[in-house]
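request received
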Amino acid sequence: MIELVDPRGQATNSGEALAPRVARAEELRRIGFLSNEPEHLTGPHFPGYTRVLEEALRERFGDLEFHREIKPVLSRPAEGDLIARFSGYDGVINGLAK
Amino acid sequence: MQSAFNEDLPKQVELSEWPELSYRLRLTDGLPTFPPERGVVEALVAGSGRAGEEVLGRIPPRAGVATVEAIAANAAMGGCLPEYMPVVLAAIEAVLEPRFNLAGVVTTTHPCWPLVIVSGRVVRDLEMATGESLFSGGGARANLAIGRALRLVLWNLGGAYPREPVQEIMGHPGRLAFCIAEEPSRSPWPTLSDALGLSDAESAVTVFACEGPQIANLWGVETADEHAVAERWLELVADQMCARGNSNTHTMGEMLVVLSPSMARRLGSEGWNRERVQEFLWQTARRRLGDIRVRADGTPATDSSAHYPWWPEWLDQSDPETRVPVTESAEAIHLVVSGADSIPCAAVCPSWGHLGGFASSRAIE
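response:
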C-alpha cells in the first residue's frame, strides 16, 4: 500500500456565500447587468444586448429595477467595490458580445 | 464531464490502483501521472527548503490554496525531483503576481499558457535541455517535469478544466508542459531575466503567457553581403511577428522571440546587442492600420467608433497609413537565446496582448 497526498489540497471555503435565490422567477424585482465591454457605435456589444434583455424581462415580469456596470478591463475579475454595488439584487447577468 | 472534486481521495491505495483512480477522480488532464506518494511529497517539500504548510496563494479559477505540500503533490505526479522544487515554486509565485492575471490567462478563449523560462546556473545544475527540440522538452526530465508540475497545479488546485470554466477555443499543446531554458553559454547577450531586472540573481525563472512557437525560417536571404545578413534575417522575423490575424497585431501587449544560438551569435558578431535587436523588431514588425482594421466593404475602419481603446494615445488611429507596432514599446519584445546550435532560426510566440500574461521574473532561492 502507498499513502497519498491529495493534489487538490485542502478543501476550503472562501467564507463567501452565494446570494439567496428567489423561489420563483415571478419574485424577481432587481436585476443587475455586468458588461465585460463598453458600448460600441458599430458591431455587437453587451450593453446593447442588456437593453433588449431589459425590455424582454419587463414584458415578462413587469416593473423591475435594473442596475448596470461595465468592467474596466474585460479580462480581469470585477473588483470588489463593483461587485458590492450589486448587493441586494436578485440576479446579475454578465456577458461579452462577440 | 462533471468534476470529481468532491470525491475524497483514499488515504492509502495499492500502487496498481493509482492510474485508474487518478482518471476517475479527474486528478490528471489525461496524461498518466506518478502517484503523489507521501514519502515522495515529503522529499519534494524538503527539497524546496520551505515549510509544507506555507501558502503561496490561491490558484484561480477555483481558488485552491497552494501550500508547498499541495504543490509538491502535483510536482510528484509530474515526475519532479526535490531539486526542481525551487524552480517550480518560483514559477508559481511569478504567475500569482496580480499583473499576470492568471485567472484570465487560464480561462480565456485565447490559446495562451504560461511558458516557464529558466535562466542561469540552475539550467546546468538541473541538466535542463537547451538544444534540439527545445519547446518539447529536449529529452530532459527537468524541462518537462517542471512544466508538468505547473500544469497539474493549475489543474488540481485551480480547477482549470476545459469548458468548466476554461473557454480556450483551439487549445495549446504547451498546456501539457511548457518549459524551456535559456542557453547559458552560447549567447552573446545577458539572459532574459537579467534584462528584466534580475541581474543579481544567480538563477531565475520568467513566466510569460504565450501561444505556441511560430517558426521564422530564414530562407530567401542573399548572404553574399556579409555585413547585412543579420538585418535581413530580422526582417523575416519581424514579418512573422505582425501577421494580420496575430493577436499582438490587434492587442499589442508583449511578445517573445527565441533566437537560435547561431543566429544570435551572428547578430552579436555584426554588432547587434539585445536593445538594438528589440528596437529593430519593434520598428519593423508593423502593419498599416488600413490593413489591420477594415470594414465589410474593404475600406479602412479609422473613425472613432472603430478605435481600439487599449492602443496608446500616440498612435494615430484616424490615419490608415499609420504603421502599428505589435507591442507598445521595444522593451516589450522579449528575447531568449536557445535551441539547437545548428541552422540559424527563430521562433515567435505571440501573447494575450494587453490583457495579461505579462513577463514576470523571480529569482530562484
